[in-house]
Design a protein that fits this description.
This protein is an alpha/beta fold. It contains 10 helices and 10 strands. 38% of the residues lie in helices and 23% in strands. It starts with a helix and ends with a helix.
């Protein structure tokens, strides 16, 4: 049974206006940690697929547990919602909304959050997180805004050919640190790009990034391309970047 303390979560709904997104706004969910105090400052985790991270990943409940019982420093989570019909167009680097979404993230979302909430502004205090194409766009946001982001969590990253090509063209990822997992039963996943071997493309991305100096925490486990698999690794991935020294 889940400890009742973990379920007492503070989640604020926000709507951010945007000049870059065609619809002109985007819904956000902001998790505030136990004992939240505007006088303090907090690390921050930015999640793609915000609704799913909160509902299926149960990231707010997991965060409460880590903070209350595992000695993890309190942190803020920002979940950025996405229209599933537009997800590939925004998250995939060859999508027709990708450039606008990446610019929205760096030029509008980050200043909005940093104006309203006491989040830290160093790259070492910001984490990007995503599942599948959410992991992909997190990597491409970090590439576009290298002075802002160095830390990425990618659960079963959908690193299709265009992502691999773009990373291969870059020479230096020595400031980057990634936590990557993939399921061993993800070798023939039926995606909107056809049947994809996620194990193969994640191994290839790991190799490319390591060859260019990135620090990679990579592992493969029994699991499929579903939240039931990814949720199990949310605690370890957060601890990896947020653990107290």
């Amino acid at each position: 049974m889940t400890d009742e303390r973990y379920l007492k979560r503070t989640i604020v709904r926000e709507v951010i206006t945007s000049h870059y997104l065609p619809e002109g706004q985007r819904n956000l969910r902001v998790y505030l940690p136990p004992g939240y105090n505007e006088v303090l400052s907090y690390p921050v985790v930015y999640c793609q697929d915000g609704e799913e991270f909160f509902n299926f990943g149960r990231i707010a409940t997991i965060a409460n547990q880590l903070i209350l019982d595992e000695g993890v420093e309190p942190f803020i989570i920002v979940g950025v919602d996405v229209d599933k019909k537009l997800r590939t167009a925004e998250y995939s680097p060859d999508g027709d909304r990708h450039s606008n979404y990446v610019t929205f993230f760096g030029e509008e979302l980050i200043p909005f959050i940093e104006t309203k909430y006491p989040v830290r502004r160093e790259p070492s205090e910001r984490i990007l997180a995503g599942d599948s194409l959410g992991g992909t766009v997190s990597l491409h946001i970090a590439i576009a805004y290298r002075s802002m982001f160095h830390q990425i969590i990618a659960y079963s990253g959908a690193f299709y050919s265009e992502s691999l090509r773009l990373v291969e063209a870059e020479l230096d990822f020595k400031d980057f640190s990634l936590y990557m997992i993939v399921g061993l039963q993800e070798t023939a996943f039926e995606s909107d790009r056809g049947v994809i071997n996620f194990v193969e493309i994640n191994r290839r991305m790991k190799q490319l990034l390591e060859e260019r100096g990135a620090q990679i925490n990579y592992s493969e486990h029994d699991g499929q391309h579903v939240w039931g698999f990814w949720q199990k690794f949310i605690p370890a991935s957060l601890i990896h970047f947020l653990r107290s020294e």
